[in-house]
Specification:
The structure is a single chain. By secondary structure, this protein is mostly helical. It has a domain of 107 residues. Helices cover 46% and strands 4% of the residues. The chain has a two-stranded antiparallel sheet with strand order 1-2. The chain is elongated. 23% of the residues are buried.
C-alpha cells in the first residue's frame, strides 16, 4: 500500500456506519427512537395474553382500541421525527400529550414503560435544535457581512484585524531612563 492509495479501501460496514452517523446527526434521532419504543408497549399490552401453565391471563380491556390507536400514533410520530425533522415541535407536543393520555387509556401507559419512553422522546424532540452549518473556507465570502474594513450597522468592525500603534516608551520615563517621556522617531528625547 502506498501513500497515493485512495481512501476507498475502507470496508462496506465502515462506509455504512459513517453514512448512518451523518444521517443521525441531522435529525432528532434519539427522540424518534424513544417515541417508537414507547408506542410498542402501549399498543401491545392490551392485546397480550400471558400463559402460566394451563392458566391464561388476558390484559385486554375495553380501551384496547384506544391503546392500539395511541401506540400506532406514537410509532408514526417517531418516524415523523426521523424523516420530517421540520415538524419536530408538533411531533414532540403530540407525543407528550399521547403519553399522558395513555396513562388513563392503556394499562397505566403500558405499565409505565411506554409512558416514560414516550415522554422522554417528546421532550427530546422539543429540545432538539438543528446544528450549525459547516464553516466556510477562510477565503470565501457570502456577502452577509459588511464589506472589509467597514463598520456594520450594529457598530462592529468587520475585516482584517488592525493592531494599534503605541508610542515607543510609556509616559514618565524614556528608554534611556529620562523622566521627561517619549522618544522621538530618531531616538532623541522630546523635551
Amino acid at each position: 500500500m502506498s501513500a497515493e492509495t485512495p481512501v476507498q479501501s475502507t470496508g462496506t460496514f465502515t462506509r455504512l456506519r459513517l453514512r448512518f452517523r451523518d444521517w443521525r446527526g441531522t435529525r432528532p434521532f434519539w427522540a424518534g427512537l424513544f417515541t417508537l419504543l414507547g408506542g410498542i408497549p402501549i399498543a401491545y399490552f392490551p392485546y397480550a395474553t400471558l400463559k402460566l401453565g394451563h392458566m391464561s391471563i388476558a390484559m385486554a380491556t375495553t380501551a384496547g382500541a384506544g391503546s392500539l390507536i395511541i401506540g400506532v400514533l406514537l410509532v408514526t410520530l417517531g418516524l415523523t421525527m426521523w424523516f420530517q425533522s421540520a415538524t419536530r415541535v408538533f411531533a414532540g407536543v403530540a407525543t407528550i400529550l399521547l403519553a399522558l393520555v395513555s396513562l388513563v387509556i392503556s394499562n397505566i401507559g403500558g405499565f409505565l414503560a411506554g409512558f416514560l419512553l414516550a415522554l422522554v422522546g417528546g421532550a427530546l424532540s422539543l429540545s432538539w435544535v438543528p446544528g450549525e452549518p459547516p464553516v466556510e473556507a477562510a477565503g470565501e465570502h457570502d456577502g452577509a457581512d459588511a464589506p472589509t474594513g467597514e463598520a456594520a450597522l450594529d457598530g462592529t468592525l468587520h475585516g482584517p484585524a488592525v493592531t494599534p500603534r503605541f508610542p515607543a516608551a510609556p509616559h514618565g520615563k524614556g528608554e534611556d531612563g529620562g523622566a521627561d517621556g517619549v522618544r522621538a522617531a530618531g531616538g532623541h528625547r522630546v523635551g
